[in-house]
Protein: UBX domain-containing protein 1 isoform X1
Organism: Notothenia coriiceps
Amino acid sequence: MAELTTLESLMEMGFDRNRAEKAVASTGNQGIEQAMDWLMVHENDPDIDEPFVPPVGNVVGGAAVTQSPTDEPSIADPAEGTAGGDGSIDVDDPSKVPLSEEERLEQVRRLEELMRLKQAERRERERAEELEREKQRRKDGQELQHIRQKLQDDDMKKLSDQRMKEKMEDKMARQRVKDKIARDREERAQKFGVVSPASTATSSQPAQPTPPSPTSHGPPPTKKEYDESRIQIRLLDGSTLTAVFKSQEPLAAVRVYVQVNGNTPEGQDFTLLSPYPRNEYTELDMEKPLKELGLVPSAVLVVIKK
């Protein structure tokens, strides 16, 4: 019983002759399975349906393919399971018997079953590849999320370090102001700290009025000096902060305090306003001491947008 050639088998399975010839030639006419694999791999190629032109001197199945002016181009194919065992069919062999209809249908059925198996294997391979791609995509997404989280953490750390630096600079500025106030007190004490001899008299003797004398004058009476100011600050959202500042601190110290401790949005530019009497402070006012601005011993300030 002679079997169908690879080309005939592919055409019986529904492949057109052009694709079947390309598959047989591209696989070196090594059998139906290799040709089917080639067709399934290349079925979406843009040039799959272009006319097939066999190469000059192409040898298929051990015999040269020749073309006479009256013959159609064809591709020889080795028979499968021939008695010779060399995979070739002698077209002049008188013992070659055509397949019966039942034999032909049985061979086509076997080939179709083989094709279904190949297609199932291909679908399974594609599912495995798709699953692997999905795993890789998720892995890449997780790595990207880790990178974003690290960048966010680094930004938060930089912001925290910047705020800590600003607080430290503010603390040092306040300490410098305190030291200056202490030096001013010492200088005033040394300047006005002369005690009158009359103040050393014992309390057992009645105090005697003494006429004023140019050499016995003490320091002139002065109004009470406040070295601190309690300031209440109303923020943009209506909440309030209360803090105590030195009277000689600049108004900029209050603005820095609001930037560090308030809930002002990052990057929001603002200034301070005194409601009674209404006075919006300028950048020049920020360098002036609280005492000079009349904000001692207490005051209310309002944060407003610029």
